[in-house]
Design a protein that fits this description.
Layout lengths: L7 H4 L3 E3 L9 H11 L4 E5 L12 E5 L5 E3 L4 E6 L1
Parallel strand pairs: 2-5
Antiparallel strand pairs: 1-4, 3-5
Protein name: PASTA domain-containing protein
Length: about 80
């Protein structure tokens, strides 16, 4: 009996490197990039305390653990401002 072909879930890496050069990026563009890297949970913290609803209206001011390798199922915290 032949071995089953690997599924898409088997190919997705368990870790990825958090992008480092993100300051000034549009939050929606960064969200797309983080999704492509495989991160499943991204938390957006407003520098002003406002609720972040529409990512395209926000600019990234920082990201926690920039340049570090992290499990893709662990939350990535992004800091944003309008």
């Amino acid at each position: 009996m032949a071995a089953a072909a690997p599924t898409a879930a088997a190919i997705i890496p368990a870790t990825a490197v958090i992008p480092a050069n993100v300051v000034g990026m549009n939050a929606e563009a960064l969200d797309d990039e983080l999704s492509l890297l495989g991160f499943k949970k991204v938390i957006y913290n407003s520098d002003t305390g406002k609720t972040v609803l529409l990512l395209s209206n926000w600019t990234v001011t920082g990201i926690d653990n920039a340049g570090a390798e992290q499990a893709v199922d662990k939350a990535v915290v992004v800091h944003v401002t309008k």
